[in-house]
Protein 1
Amino acid sequence: MKRRSSLHGDALPQGAADTSGYTPGHTPGHTSAYAPTTFAPRLLAWWDVHGRKTLPWQQQRTPYRVWLSEVMLQQTQVSTATPYFLRFTAQFPEVQTLAAAPLDAVLHGWAGLGYYARARNLHAAAQAVVREGAGVFPETLDGLQALPGIGRSTAAAILSLAHDARHTILDGNVKRVLTRWAGLEGFPGLPAVERELWRLAEACTPQGRNADYTQAIMDLGATLCTRARPACALCPLQADCVAYLSQRQAELPTRRPAAKRARRVRRVVVLVAVSQDAVWLEARPAKGIWGGLWSFPEFADLTAAAELHGFASAQPALARVWPTVLHSFTHYDLELVPWVLPVSAPASASASAPRQAASVPPLTGAEPNGRWYPMRRTTAAKTRVGLPAPIERLIEAVADATAAGIFSSDEALGERT
């Protein structure tokens, strides 16, 4: 980890005074007139004129709404999170309604946002707040961090935004702003660099207007100090920003060290059992990809699917292999090979598992926990279960094929098996 020692990157002469106001050895020194004491005033003056003030979570700023927004905005852009926040708060307007809701309903409301552990943690944390705090969120960092899914920066954001209390945040936007402004090198995810960033963030946090400052520094990172093509000409911090003055915006923050191994690809066969207007879905294990969501049973290959599907009323003569569905995760790519298998009509859409327990697919866990899921939108809207985005799209394609009468004859749709 490297830090510049003067405004233009040259080392301070021996014996020269560092007028930055930082603790020596903790944060980069500034020899310009700008110091941590002027960082917040400049930022707040910019935010007063240009900051975002009409985002839905900025209205009725309660701990519950702030918490929801902070969790949704993790790994998610504002434009994507906004409609989810509006729908989520309409369905779960307060922490008590979220705590009382079935997990399936919560996952259904979250479906499409990804990183589903966030939704499971939201549900668990809401239940803890209701159970242990009678619906009142803790008002200390330690109390909030004891809840599932809430870390140091999220806890600080809740207290700052909801109560205007002085707490320091350090999310991805703030790390980018401070790293560039101070010229701090080294990947921000490394412990030593992160410690330095926390010290720097604490030194810049003002004694007043904490809610506005917290929103302002997040806004600056989201709207001007962006990853690519930052709008430095409009930035209130450009006068002493090391990255701007040295034209190193593209280099800072330092990127994560490149992984040496090739990107992994996982390929599985999914059993798409179709019966009239329903498909068979099973709950995935709580841990792992799409944890707690509903999906099709998975098999290692087509042979295993054909031999172990477990449906006594299947019509294998009409089975087809559909085109592979591709889906990318952070660290690997998933290839889903749909094996579409018509099955005789179930007694009802909520019929119990028709598959033999001994024929559970090898990749989905122990006892089958399944249900017939209605494909028609008007009916499916009432069936609130969480579905991964690629599975929901596949269900829609199967619904279209069913409506076209594909499964009522020997017409070819995909490759015959």
Protein 2
Amino acid sequence: MAPASPCTPISCSAASYLTLLVETCVTQVLFDAGKTHATGVRVIDPTGAAATITGKQLIVAANAIETPRLLLDSGYAHPLLGKNLMFHIIFATIGVFADEIDPYRGRPITHAMADFTVPDADGLRGGYVELGGQLHPLEEGTSYPWLLHKSLMTDGKWRRRIASVSMIGEDVPVLANRVELDPKVRDVYGRAAPRIVYARHPKDQAMVDHFFPKLDAIATAAGAVELRRIDFVDQDGRPESKHLLGTARMGTDAKASVTDPWGRLHDVDNLWICDGSLWPTSTGFNPTLTQQAMARRTAAYLADPTSVKP
């Protein structure tokens, strides 16, 4: 499970040789003429002034949407860059209980189970299951129609008496699911916005259909008297998860991957990726701690290539 905060404190010793540029946007990665070596980055600071920053090594860690966007917008090309975008398939059974259990007063997730992360008798693998769930009063208040707002808030059914059983399902990498540069939409700096192309693979839908009854059974066994299923792709037309993965996959074959096993671009000797873009598959678990471990591993390799092993 992810820690309470994704932030890592910077030690005083590290701060002595670290310069942190806040509210500064990198707009372009700069390469030499052959595009085999990164020379630096072009940035825009909080005042709107442009500048160039150079360095011996360049690490990109903007995650699986902004990392390919930046590299594509900088003129770097690889057939797989931006492809195989994964989010995890998040779906849940919401159980309504007769008693008031006030889940919003505690942790959002109280328990978890990994039973469905391995293939079952039917050969289908799901993912990590989180138990708990909550709906805070402010969030609840924005979801009700105005004419019924007072009575629904007073009743508090969805705030006081619910608990969820949600699955972080492993979605398969699909070439057509991708990040690309929008030909028309621009951001505030005039850069091409990222455009997301995504559709659920039939195997992913089979997983949802297979495991929903199991989530229902868990909620019912816990005492739920009413069930409601939530599938965010079906409900909203897009994945709910913020687990962005796969668009610059790592590997040993330069034709089948964007980076080597350490996260360095196969054809650029000093440009590294340290984020969820590297994942060849999504796995069925929260990716936060693994991404942190992979970033630390790459940093150790940069410091001393003989000190660590893949």
